[in-house]
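Entry for the shared binder. Reason: the reviewer on the internal report wants the predicted structure included alongside the sequence.
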Amino acid sequence: MNNQTDNIYETNKVIACGQIKSPLQFSHKTFGEVFYTFVLGIERRSGYVDELNVMISERLIFETPLQVGDFVEITGQIRTYNENVDGKNKLNVVIFARELLTNEDVEYYENYVFLEGFLCKPPIKRTSPLGRDICDLMIAVNRMYNKSDYIPAIAWGRNAGFAEKLDVGTKIYIEGRLQSREYKKKLDDGTMQLRRAYEVSVLRLEEDYIDDFEVE
């Protein structure tokens, strides 16, 4: 990679290799450039398949049309944005594709995330139904044009015990994977609705505290 690309991925990098699970759908158009979204399935060693949303420019697929069932390698960044659904804010988490590779001969899976950012909410320590310690984190990762992505993450075991002691404003470095998780949400009318959440599952966590960080 050249230096410009290295700078792009300095604080927020994703490598996602998997199988396309849905047709491309129009997302939006910005300055004449059209963007599409699709679902990428990445199988874990356990056999569970994370279904992740990918956003990609028409310029990356101009010469390589993508079809359901294709295996692709996406290099990009995690992007988040709020969407108003039924009067409530919903956090959308997507992989914003910057590079695309296709391989017709090899079927492989990879799910790697590196983030450098700041803890912007107090960590929440809890226990899983199986009795394992877990800790929920929200990380603010800066990007160009004075914008930030607010990325949910979850630490496990010893990392959870370490994470719960971190203060808001702590600069942290994370390596892990982006995962999808289904859960049931009880609605106002008493019915249950199946929903999907997205978060970075932390495999490695380091801190570098900075005194003068302020959360907006």
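Summary line for the report: The CA atoms of residues 123 and 165 lie 8 Å apart.
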